[in-house]
Amino acid sequence: MTPHNHAKPGDYAEAVLLPGDPLRAKWIAETFFEAPKLVNSVRNCLGYTGSWKGKPVSVQATGMGQPSLSIYVHELINVYGAKTLLRVGTCGGLNAKVKVRDLILAQAATTDSAIVKDRFGPYNFAPIADFGLLRAAAEKAEAAGMRFHAGNMLSSDIFYHADGFAGYGALPEHGVIGVEMEAAALYTLAARFGVKALTICTMTDCLITKEEINAEERQTSLKDMVTLALDVAIGA
Ligand SMILES: O=P(O)(O)O[C@H]1O[C@H](CO)[C@@H](O)[C@H]1O
Ligand SMILES: O=c1cc[nH]c(=O)[nH]1
């Protein structure tokens, strides 16, 4: 149906989880969905639809970075009718108060990317999460006893900064607590097309303390993030 997606209209639910990693999309569908069905495998950027607690839900991998996410999200909204988009990612930590395995709810997303900046001329647009999704995620995370932080996320085009931690400049001292690579484009597209979006990330590597989690812990802590996102997606 598009150069990047061979699903038919109607193949996706209105609520879609968005991991960067295609294998995380497969794991989410096979681990959590009832009756998962593969709906897209173009470029191995896997997409599935199934249900969670009896309600329809989809997952679509976005690849890494804002250009790649923008393609999948643009098509999910405009071709497949997606209305609620929940990124489920991993991120680095920019504040020592955020511990590995903690969840970050990206209330806003700062970015160095031209993909957002170039659209607004003289203005510095502030990409923000949908308040209802953010509030629901915070309430559910609190009720489940999950460690989480709501705050400003950096969506960077650069994974390997030539200047290391110094490359993040004044952002950490202005309350930017994590770094990933997609949320700002997701929020900007959601604003443009009038749909709801939220990014939830698990902090997997602290750029200050250098603490990281291993593969097994990564899987366990991602379960918390995914069940939280699924409950928020279906309004449970
Ligand atoms: O784990 P995912 O969702 O891919 O997210 C993070 O991991 C990738 C970088 O390793 C980037 O996509 C970044 O945003
Ligand atoms: O984008 C990312 C994701 C995880 N860790 C980082 O440092 N950056």
Walk me through the topology.
Layout: E1 15-18, H1 22-32, E2 34-40, E3 47-52, E4 55-60, H2 66-78, E5 84-93, E6 103-111, H3 114-117, H4 131-143, E7 148-155, E8 176-180, H5 183-193, E9 196-206, H6 215-234
Parallel strand pairs: 1-4, 1-5, 5-9, 6-7, 7-8
Antiparallel strand pairs: 2-3, 3-4, 5-8, 6-9
Helix pairs in contact: 2-5, 4-6
This protein binds 1-O-phosphono-alpha-D-ribofuranose (R1P) and uracil.
Write out key terms for the chains shown.
Purine nucleoside phosphorylase DeoD-type; Nucleoside_phosphorylase_sf; Rossmann fold; 9 strands; 6 helices; EC 2.4.2.1; single chain; alpha/beta; binds 1-O-phosphono-alpha-D-ribofuranose; 236 residues; binds uracil; five-stranded mixed β-barrel
Which residues form runs of ≥5 with pLDDT under 50?
none
Biggest sheet features: 5 strands, mixed, barrel
> How much helical structure, as a percent, in the residues?
25-40%
What count of structural domains? 1
Total strand segments: 9
Oligomer: single chain
Overall CATH architecture: 3-Layer(aba) Sandwich
Query: Cα-atom Rg, whole angstroms?
Result: 17 Å
Mean pLDDT figure: 96
Class based on secondary structure composition and strand pairing: alpha/beta
Subunit structure: Homohexamer; trimer of homodimers.
Catalytic activity: uridine + phosphate = alpha-D-ribose 1-phosphate + uracil; a purine 2'-deoxy-D-ribonucleoside + phosphate = a purine nucleobase + 2-deoxy-alpha-D-ribose 1-phosphate; a purine D-ribonucleoside + phosphate = a purine nucleobase + alpha-D-ribose 1-phosphate
Site (Important for catalytic activity): 218
Function: Catalyzes the reversible phosphorolytic breakdown of the N-glycosidic bond in the beta-(deoxy)ribonucleoside molecules, with the formation of the corresponding free purine bases and pentose-1-phosphate.
